[in-house]
Amino acid sequence: QVQLVESGGGLVQAGGSLRLSCAASGRALGAYAVGWFRRAPGKEREFVTAISWSGGRTGYRDSVKGRFTISRDNAKSTVSLQMNSLKPEDTAVYYCAAQAFGDYCSTYECYDYWGQGTQVTVSS
After folding, report:
1. Cβ–Cβ < 8 Å for 81, 17
2. Is the pLDDT higher at 104 or at 101?
């Protein structure tokens, strides 16, 4: 079993940047595909981005393409999400999740382990 902890959230003005990190303990994160999801107030949880266990495949929701970049360092058992050109509509709690079986997935049903989330607030 793996435990996930997100960090790096905060308050930023529109156009600014944040870098979120997902750190794993219990088992090495390198064995898992990892995804980032977010939930804004009053809205459903939505997929943001995911990366395969090897890092060879990534995917993004359309609204963040060109602004967000997911990466991983399996030696450090971490996955990062670099978020640039942030918009107020990016405001949400961001969660990282790990998939025990499978190489890549963009739907939350695939994921077995979840972090507690980190708040990202983008002011206009």
Report:
1. no
2. 104
117 CA to centre of own chain: 9
- The pLDDT of residue 26: 85
Task: Considering only CA atoms, give the Rg of the chain.
Answer: 13
- CB within 8 Å of 62: residues ≥ 6 apart: none
Q: Which two tokens stand for residue 71?
A: 């990466």
3-state secondary structure of 88: helix
pLDDT-based confidence at residue 100 (cuts at 50, 70, 90): confident
Q: Which residues contact 34 (CB under 8 A, 6 or more apart)?
A: 22, 50, 51, 53, 70, 72, 79, 96, 97, 98, 99
Structure token digits, residue 15: 């156009």
Does residue 61 surpass a pLDDT of 90? yes
